[in-house]
Write a structure and sequence with these properties.
The protein has four domains: 5-70; 82-257, no CATH class; 273-488, no CATH class; 506-567, no CATH class. The chain contains 29 helices and four strands. It is an alpha+beta fold. A four-stranded antiparallel sheet has the order 2-1-3-4, covered by helices on one side. Helix 10 packs across helix 15, helix 13 runs antiparallel to helix 16 (326-341) and helix 21 packs parallel to helix 24 (475-496).
Length: 572
């Protein structure tokens, strides 16, 4: 049986306010009337009446809502428990994790760029830590950039999170500065880095101290090229094997990942004259020199698109090829994919050149697929990049230099060939279809030209058809575009009467058949009405009694024509 029953009235004075108990009574009607009166008198924004029944076995109340009126309850954000409050970093040592350093690089990007350093150096150089602390505003803004979105995510006050971050940053700065005052970072002027590594083996703070030693070696150097050269010198002087070697190579690799992740440093290392596309090609060559050199040996023209890597970058490439920095190799490969999938143009002022470098990158990354990246990742990146080169803005810039509509059609055919992805192929095909199906295209091909004869125009149209078939378009798009090209070729041939004049010419039979069969096979005229008329005339010639007599007398003369006959759809 149910135990004692009573009713409780709760109110919210404002919509976002929490519920508070107003009264408790055993009279249901009195509880409901009190709630209604408080709502009507504007003494509450919302009211709720609950029925509380005592369970005699457990001595706990079971609650059932009887009435709810007023403003709907505001869904409050989840508040993280006190022991989980604050950022991902709960101690100064957490700042040295890769994810934390990435966040530091992002929120202090401007300050790090002005000083020509990385987040790893900031965490290991006392002079940089003191300089950042003295700036005040820079550090405060960085803390705010982290605390505000964190507050929105977990529902904690911004000021609490900022105090938490400020405390951690003060502790981290004090740790680095105190290490400098105690001379924990040995100078490479007094001893070699190998000696330092062997001497620190087994020490608890060896990673922190070695990071300070490596970062201290870069002090006073500006620019990516000399800094990279210094790091390669340190790598050459590292211990030969074992834990001491890893103690030196790990901070060098961490520094390299951050340095090469910055666009300004990358341009300085590879050459400021390189555009974005050439820089990416140079990075691929640096990461996989063996594969790229083999590719260039097969096709020397690639050397024009893939810049040579020299100086410190070449030294780094040799080490990457030897497998010394696997994390850096993976990071650079990911960076190339990230840039390919971004909206940034590879060659902003040269749309045609962008197609060239995109084709080159596709070849080079495909060759290296399996070792650095999977083939699916490469294909996905190029599918995303292809979306950017079938837009109206890019296509307009791409065909802007074309002086004739035929040149425009050939350029769009090349565009269709170099995009990937079914949807992108369809988009490129629509541009090409609109071009070859336009009245301007037909008028230009039919116009009397002093530079091209009708036969030459037919040959150009036949070549355009073959190029379209090699683009890998869908069957529908391929048929639509080639039918439009064939129709224009048919008009050009009909106006010039090329097939009729060939059939009536006094030329030898075999010569006439050879020319007609080449037209019918799509070699010297586009497939369509022109090729069909040439095929019909060739059939007439074969069936003519005088032609049969000539061919019967010398059947061996048909041997050179068999291939053309098969291509034209005629029985040999």
């Amino acid at each position: 049986m149910a135990g004692p029953v009573h009713y409780e009235v709760y109110i919210r004075k404002t919509a976002p306010a929490p519920w508070s108990l107003q009264m408790a009574t055993e009279d249901r009607a009195h509880a409901v009337q009190t709630a209604e009166d408080m709502l009507s008198d504007d003494r509450a924004a919302a009211v709720r009446v609950t029925k509380e029944t005592l369970d005699p076995d457990t001595m706990e109340f079971n609650s059932v809502t009887v009435l709810t009126r007023g403003a709907p309850e505001v869904q409050r954000k989840r508040v993280v428990p006190e022991d989980q409050a604050g950022p991902r970093c709960s101690a100064p040592q957490d700042f040295y994790a890769p994810h934390a350093r990435e966040t530091i690089s992002r929120v202090l990007e401007d300050w790090l760029g002005r000083n020509g350093v990385t987040a790893f150096e900031l965490l290991h150089r006392p002079d940089l830590a003191e300089k950042l602390e003295a700036s005040g505003v820079e550090l405060q803004h960085a803390i705010q950039k982290i605390a505000v979105p964190e507050s929105q995510d977990v529902g904690q006050p911004v000021h609490d999170l900022m105090r938490h971050y400020q405390k951690l940053s003060d502790q981290a700065v004090e740790r680095v500065v105190a290490a400098g005052r105690r001379n924990l970072f040995p100078s490479l002027e007094d001893c070699s880095i190998a000696d330092i590594a062997h001497r620190m083996a087994g020490q608890p703070d060896r990673a922190f101290i070695m990071g300070g030693v490596v970062c201290g070696a870069l002090k006073g150097l500006r620019g990516g090229r000399p800094r990279l050269d210094r790091l390669m010198d340190l790598a050459e002087r590292a211990p030969m094997d074992g834990a001491p070697r890893a103690m030196v190579m790990v901070p060098i690799e961490q520094l390299l990942c951050e340095m090469l992740g910055a666009r300004t440093s990358l341009a300085d290392m590879l050459g400021p004259s390189l555009d974005q596309g050439a820089s990416l090609a140079a990075v691929v060559r640096m990461v996989a020199p063996r594969e790229i050199n083999a590719l260039i040996a097969q096709d020397p023209r690639l050397a024009l698109q893939v810049p040579a890597v020299d100086g410190p970058a070449a030294r780094l490439g040799a080490r990457l090829e030897a497998g010394h920095f696997p994390l850096l190799s993976a990071a650079l490969a990911r960076m190339v994919l990230r840039e390919l999938m971004s909206p940034r143009r590879l060659r902003p002022n040269d749309a045609a050149g962008e197609i060239d470098i995109l084709r080159t990158l596709a070849m080079t990354l495909t060759v290296t697929a399996g070792r650095l990246l999977t083939l699916d990742e490469v294909q996905t990146a190029f599918n995303e990049r292809s979306k950017a080169i079938v837009t109206a803005d890019f296509v307009a810039a791409y065909v802007k230099s074309c002086t004739t509509v035929l040149c425009e059609a050939e350029a769009l055919t090349r565009l269709c060939e170099n995009v990937t992805g079914v949807a992108n192929k369809r988009s490129a095909a629509r541009w090409l279809s609109a071009c070859v199906g336009s009245l301007r295209f037909e008028s230009e091909m039919r116009a009397q030209s002093t530079t091209q004869t009708a036969a030459q125009k037919l040959g150009v149209l036949a070549g355009l058809q073959r190029a379209v078939r090699a683009c890998g378009l869908t069957e529908r798009d391929d048929e639509e575009i080639n039918t439009a090209i064939g129709a224009v070729g048919g008009v050009v041939e009909a106006e010039a009467r090329i097939v009729m004049m060939l059939a009536r010419s006094p030329a030898p039979l075999l010569q006439k058949l050879s020319v007609l069969l080449r037209l019918a096979a799509g070699e010297t005229a586009p497939l369509g009405p022109a090729a069909d008329r040439a095929k019909a005339e060739a059939v007439k010639l074969f069936r003519a009694p005088e032609s049969r007599a000539v061919l019967s007398a010398a059947p061996e003369t048909l041997a050179p024509l068999k291939g053309l006959m098969q291509a034209a759809g005629l029985a040999a």
